[in-house]
Amino acid sequence: MIRLSHPSSVVKGDVKLPSSKSISNRLLMLQKLYEPGVFLDNLSEANDTQLLARILSQDSHHLDVEDAGTAFRFLLAYTAVTPGEWIIRGTERLHQRPIAELVDALRVFGADIEYLENQGFAPIKVNGTTLCASAKLMDVTAVKSSQFISALLLIAPMIEGEFNLKVNTKMSSYSYVQLTISCLRRMGFTVFIKGQYLGVSKQQKFDGEYFQIEPDWTSFYYWLSIAHLAKEVDLFFPGLRLDNMSKERTKLYDVGNKAMFFEEKNGGIRVTKKEEGSIEVVTDLNYTQFPDSAMTFAMLIPAVGKKNVNLRGLDSLKYKECNREDALTRHLAKMGVKLTKEEELWKLDATQFDLRPDTYFETYGDHRMAMCVAPLAVLQPILIEDKEVVKKSYPHFWQDLKRVGFIVEEEAKGLD
Questions:
Q1: What is the spatial distance between Cα 45 and Cα 20, in angstroms, rounded to a whole number?
Q2: Order of strands across the sheet with 84-89?
Q3: What's the rounded Cα separation, in Å, for the pair 14 and 42?
Q4: Residue 257 — φ and ψ, nearest 5°?
Q5: H helix intervals, 15-139
Q6: What element of type H or E holds 300?
Q7: Of 99, 138, 294, 316, whose CB is crowded by the most CB atoms within 10 A?
């Protein structure tokens, strides 16, 4: 357990954000499948990405993906088109995360996949074979996960037959399907889009040998929360740009501060604030496309004084590294904030907001549940259960906080 605090609430310095885990994972798969000679610069140091890179570089057909859900889904598609017998397994939590929709979609193309224990869940045995489209239009609108669609798109050039995919463009996190399309295009594939219909060319025109991966916008939002809560701010984020591939940049103004300024300079973004400014918050916030940032904003909004907002798009949170819907509700309750669900809305009631010194936050084995509370330490010292969980996506998070004045103290494990 750690005690996190910031004595001055003045935050200044350069912050090299982790590179995008989402882009890194997609490019690793494309490198393995089509361009083994391409150099991926600024590859993510996140445990998920490093794990995927190790698995793709080894000869073993027994793949332990630990708790890396993205690696599991992408590797399932990869092994389906790669000759040999493969076994894919992971942690107990990963074995609880459903995979049936992707398995069923791959089976439509002729994939040979077998569940080894429980139907619809890992561990899984795959006999890699040649996949083939049985029609010119393959309807996968029943697939609700963007990562499942991304997995199909990554192997689409290897599937025999000319075909288009019909997808559900209203699915949660569809923006990550668009990110996959951007990665395919950057690797030289033509991707045709017409409404719900997607087609990937078999021919590739790639003449590059180098690809620089951009910083991670999800990680930036922890710092944006810190900037909102701090008394004074001067932070520079190299490599972060408003024209980055990730569309998550569109959430930049969900919470606005009239005293905060953003400036693109020297190949990055500088964030400054010299005084307290009036805060404006969108009252109906939708995180359908970017659920990984929902917890960060949900923790920030009460702290900036907003009493009531509606949140949308939290449906998928219960299927993440932990049940994030439940974990977020518990986090907020520690500050006197209520989160209740009414049909498709989650109503956040912060009329009784009260963050007390040394409030203790469990981490539930989930990196994002640890980092989303960290900005609160600008207001009051807080206790965080497990600092090690951040290695999954942002290994140097605590070191970066220290460099801008945060104090990270090891505390005894037990609580009175």
A1: 9
A2: 62-64, 84-89, 124-128, 112-115
A3: 17
A4: -135, 120
A5: 21-33, 47-57, 69-80, 100-108
A6: helix 294-303
A7: 294
User: What's at 249, amino acid-wise?
Assistant: R
From the list 292, 326, 358, 400, the catalytic residue is 292
User: pLDDT tens digit string along 370-403?
Assistant: 999 999 999 999 999 999 999 999 999 999 999 9
Q: For residues 282 and 200, which has the higher predicted lDDT (pLDDT)?
A: 200
Q: In 3D, which of 226, 230, 170 has the Cα closest to residue 196?
A: 170
Cβ-proximal residues to 171 (8 Å cutoff; 6+ apart), any chain: 143, 144, 145, 146, 149, 177
* DSSP secondary structure code for residue 249 in this structure: G
Model-wide pTM > 0.70: yes
Q: Which residues make Cβ contacts (< 8 Å) with residue 303, sequence separation at least 6? A: 225, 228, 229, 335, 353, 355, 375, 376, 379
Going from the C-alpha of 226 to that of each of 119, 230, 263, 304, the distances in angstroms are 44, 6, 17, 11
Check if 292 is active-site: yes
In the chain, where does the domain assigned CATH 3.65.10.10 lie?
A: 2-18+216-410, 21-211
What are the tokens at 277?
A: 């400014």
d(CA 255, CA 238) in angstroms, rounded, equals: 22
* Residues whose CB is less than 8 angstroms from the CB of residue 95 and which lie 6 or more positions away in sequence, other chains included: 89, 117, 118, 121, 122, 123
Q: Is the CB of residue 151 less than 8 Å from the CB of residue 76? A: yes
Topology of the domain covering 21-211: UDP-n-acetylglucosamine1-carboxyvinyl-transferase; Chain (3.65.10)
Using CA atoms of 108, 168, 322, 254 in order, give the dihedral in degrees to the nearest 10: 160
Which of the listed CATH numbers 3.65.10.10, 3.90.25.10, 3.40.50.170, 2.30.130.10 matches domain 2-18+216-410?
3.65.10.10
Average pLDDT value for the chain = 94
- Average pLDDT over every residue of 358-377: 97
